[in-house]
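Two proteins were folded this term; both appear here.
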Amino acid sequence: AFSDLLRRFPDSDIASDAQFHLGEAYAAEGNASAADSAYARVIARYPTTPRAPTALYKRGVIAQTARRTTAARRLFNELVKSYPESDEADLARERLRLLS
C-alpha cells in the first residue's frame, strides 16, 4: 500500500510519511537493507519533513547493528549537523560517545 501511494502520488503531503512507514515495515520484517534504503529516500526526497531526523537516526542504528562503525559514525554526525536541535540528534550524540 505504501509503495502504491508513493508511485501514484510521490509529491503528496503524506508521501514522506508513506516512505517512512515503508522503512518501518521493512525493519519489522527484519529486512535491514530495504529499511535502510527506504529511510535514505525519506532523507533525500523529503529533507524538511519531521520524519527526516528519525530516518537518519534509524540508518545510523542499522549501520551500527551491522557493525559498520564508520558508516554509523558518519550518519550520526550528519544527523547532529543537519538536525542539531532534534531529539534524535541527542540520541546520536550519545551513540557517538559510545562509539569513541
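Next, the second protein.
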Amino acid sequence: MLVYSFVIIINQKNRPCGYLQEIGQIHNSKTRRVSCGVARNLYAVDINGDIYPCQRFVNNKEFAIGNVADGDIGQKDFLKKVTIDNFKKCAHCWARNLCVAGCPHENLASTGDMNLPHDSYCRYVKKIKSELIRLYLRLSDEDIEILFKKK
C-alpha cells in the first residue's frame, strides 16, 4: 500500500512528516497567502527594542516594523508586502498557492528583492509539488481515510 510509510511516520508521534502536511494541503484544497509565520506569529526583538518580522531580518533597520517602547507594530504593512499577490513573477505560476514564493528573507538574500524568488527555488518547488500531486492522485480512498481522518 502506497500510504504505508506515511502511516509508520504518523504512528511514531515524535517524527513529524512535512510532506504529509503538504499532501494534506492538497487534499483539503488549502491555499496560503504568506510562506511562513513572518510578522504573524514569528517576531524578533533586538537589544534596542526594535521589532522585526522574523529573526532573519534583525539588524536590518529597513525591515524594523516597530519598537517595544512605542507599542505599535506595523506588521500589517509588512504582510501586505509579502503576500503572494505582490509577487509578479508568480502571477501565472500553477504552483503559486502551494508554494507561496518562499521565505522573504531568502528571496532578499538571493535576488535582492524579498518579492522575487530565485529561479532555482522555483524549479525545486515545482518539482516537489508536482511529485506530491502525483502521489496524492495515486492514493486510494482507503489511503486517504487513513491519512486524513479526523481524530
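The chain has seven helices and four strands. The helical segments are 4-11, 18-27, 75-82, 96-99, 104-111, 119-138, 141-148. These notes refer to the second protein only.
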